[in-house]
Each structure stands twice: as structure tokens, then as C-alpha cells.
Amino acid sequence: MIKNKKILIVGAGGFIGGHLVKRLLDDGNYIVATDIKPREYWFQEFEKAENHFSMDMKDIGNCRKVAKNIDYVFNMACNMGGMGFIENNKAECMQSVLINTNLLISCKETSVERYFFSSSACAYNKTKQQNVFIEGLRETDAYPADPEDGYGWEKLFSERMCRHFMEDYGLQVRVARYHNIYGPFGTYDGGREKAPAALCRKIIKAKKNNKNEIEVWGDGMQTRTFLYVDDCIEGTLRLFESDYSEPVNIGSDEQVSINQMIEIIEGISGVKKLNRIYQLDKPKGVRGRSSNNDLVKKILNWSYKIKLREGLKKTYNWISSEINNQGSNLSRFTKS
Ligand code: GDD
After folding, report:
1. Cα-trace Rg, the chain
2. What is the pLDDT of residues 125-163, one digit of tens each?
3. Which helix (H) or strand (E) holds 164?
4. What digits encode the pLDDT tens for the residues 228-245?
5. 3 state SS of 247
6. pTM confidence score
7. Ligand 1 pocket test: which of 179, 217, 254, 265 has the largest number of ligand atoms within 8 Å of its C-beta?
8. Hey, what domains does the chain have and what are their CATH numbers?
9. Distance from C-alpha of 23 to C-alpha of 237, rounded to nearest angstrom
10. Can 316 be counted among the known catalytic residues?
11. How many CB atoms lie within 10 A of CB 79?
């Protein structure tokens, strides 16, 4: 367990970053939390952390300011979202390269002991994801390089930048490739939401408005593995403390189609089967993507615990309470 450390978490106002702040505070660390988002847009805020709102880490001056006297750095920051966002904002996504680059330079200049980079399954070669049911992607499947355009290229490039900072300057780096992380305090509307939250929202709204149909992007046969955020945090921290410095998948092995996930969410909500309106012109991403977890099991002796149904139930309940509280908008912000 990481304890009594001074830790910089960049992207602390975002979804995974917020959960990480909570866990590392609970474990007894001093947290410096930064995010480009203004205070009112942070997904979670913790009073015990040293919070820096509206701080753009693409600016190296900001990186240098907060990296001083820090033991560990977690870079959880990037301009991202589900397929609806990353397919239409490639230039925005690629600019996150500045965050990672400037942070690495600042860490090299100070006494930072260890650096974490949150990479993504979007770094994998697209040609290996063209079928609905595929073998889980192994870490070696990122090469030869042909990642998701924009967002995936930035992740793959930044992974390599981390590796070279370790080789050339001796900075200890750890890199996770996340496979579609979902859970409470994630985006569920507005255009950046990923499929689990989007489909929960659509089913909650259909139920609320007595509608018997939902819109689904694509034909619903696309497959993915989704990982609940608590498992993501646990895997991340274990990887961080390990001595493995190459990229590692952090994902589940419950491969489902989007149609299967909709059935699970319908079961949670108790609605009758809704008519699916398949929108074939919407962003679809790769046809099939799932995580092979042999490496993470081998090096960390760890596997995810929360099954998809259980995680979706927690997510559904949180989104449902958010939607019911709309207007007050307070339940997004936990202060502790
Ligand atoms: N977002 C969304 N909203 N997706 C939908 C919807 C909907 O209402 N209906 C169906 N889908 C389908 C998409 O068309 C896609 O085929 C699949 O659900 C998964 O979509 P996302 O969850 O948006 O993205 P992804 O799995 O392709 O990629 C996400 O995860 C990667 C890591 O595994 C993105 O968030 C990437 O940024 C991330 O790197």
C-alpha cells in the first residue's frame, strides 16, 4: 500500500483521476490534485487534497510549479471521451501529448521517483480488431503501429516517450492500457460519454418517459470488455508498485456485445425489452476489442473482481440518482 507519500495527480477532476485521489487520500497520502477544468466541473472534489482548479498542464510552467518536492506522479489527464468525442476531435486529442511531455520533463528536473501514464486500448493496431469476436488483445498487439486515429496515436507516442525517459534519464515509469473503464462519477451525457453510461442513461430516460425504444449506435454487434472503476484503481496501484515498466492491459475478460450489455441494463432497470433503433451512421470505433489479461495476472497475480452486471448496477443507480437530482447538480461533488 502506498502511504505517507506526496503524490501529484494530474487530471484529478476527471473520472478515474477523482477515484484515484479518494483512494490515495484514504490510504494516508498527501495529494496535490490538478485539472484544467474549473472547480464547478470537477467530477469529485476532496477538501483534504491540495486542489488546483483551472490549471492547464500543457503549460510547462504549471508542471514545474506542482512537480516540486513530489514523490510520485500519476498522469490521468487527457482530452478524451467515448467514440462520439474521439472520432470527431482528433486534433484536440493529440494535443494531450503536451501534458505528458511537459510532465516528464518536469519530473526529470526534480526528485520525482516514479511516474504513471494512463494509456488506452485505443493504442492497439486497428487491423487486429476488425471482427466481432476476437481473441483478447495482448500487449504485443500494439505493433506494428496502426492505432486509433488521433487519440490512439497520442497514447502510443506518449507510451514511448515514457519508455525513453526511463532508458535515457532513469525515471521509473509505469504504463497501463485501460479497457473502457466505467462507473459512478463518469460522464453520462453531453457527448463525451462512453457506451455503458450512455446506454444506462438512455434506458433510464426511456423508463421515465414511458418510451418503448432506444437509439443504439451501430448494429449492436460490436464487442468490448468493460472494467469497473474500483478494479481499475486497484490494478493501477498494484502496477505502480510493481517493478514492471512496459505497458500492461488493465481490463476485464467478460467480452460482451453492445446488444448483450443493453439486455443486462434492461434487466437491472426492470423495463420490458425496448425496441432498438440502430443508427448505423453514428461513431462505431473498432468492431471488436477485448483485453487479454495473461500478463497482468502473471506479473501482479491480480485479476478484476467486479462482474459487469454488478458494476452496471452501481453505475445505473448513480446515473439514475443524478438524473433525478437534475437542477441541484450537487450529487456530482463529494467533499470529504
Ligand atoms: N458512446 C456511445 N454511446 N457508444 C455507443 C452508443 C451510445 O449511445 N450506442 C452504441 N455504442 C457503441 C459505439 O458505437 C461503439 O461501437 C461501442 O458502443 C463502444 O463505444 P464507446 O464506449 O464510446 O467507445 P470504445 O469502446 O470504442 O472506446 C472507448 O474506450 C477506449 C478504451 O477501451 C473510448 O472511451 C476510448 O477513448 C478509450 O480509449
Report:
1. 19
2. 999 999 998 899 999 999 999 999 999 999 999 999 999
3. helix 151-169
4. 999 999 999 999 999 999
5. coil
6. 0.96
7. 217
8. 6-179+228-251+292-305 (3.40.50.720)
9. 10
10. no
11. 19
